[in-house]
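ARCHIVE CARD
Drawer: 12
Card no.: 0347
Subject: one protein chain, sequence and derived structure
Cross-reference: see card 0346
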Amino acid sequence: MSAEAVDVRESPSVADFTVRRAATTRWSDNDMYGHLNNAVYYQLFDAAINGWIIEHSGLDPVAAPSVGVVAESGCRYFEQLQFPQALEVGIRVARLGRTSVTYDLGLFPAELPETAEVAARGRWVHVYVDRDTRRPVPIPDRLRRLFESATG
């Protein structure tokens, strides 16, 4: 599947996501309109992806010789979310390359039925680079195995 295959205009269902991570909202996440500020969605996506990677691969982000840097991101909003709401971030790997991984992401209220559509859909691309030179490097094997487990 190519990176362009993630069409954020379409709203997938909750069941479409291989991995799910709890996400907590804060009072300060709401904007003057009473819903989550658009920038908060990106923070929730970032925390979910990196939390999943660290917890399930044993990655030490401070000491690892290579790091995943965000090369691209995007989000489409379908329904408003707000504090206080228990949320989940759905993660699936849409494309796995030699040095990069593209995630398809969904944000939705926790405990929705599997057939419910997501409130927001995101796209996130990590490119793995050498910590010192910042040049692209192959994705480490332990991360590749994790990403392969979440292909959708």
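Annotation on reverse: The beta strands are 19-24, 66-77, 86-96, 100-109, 120-130. The chain has one domain: 9-148.
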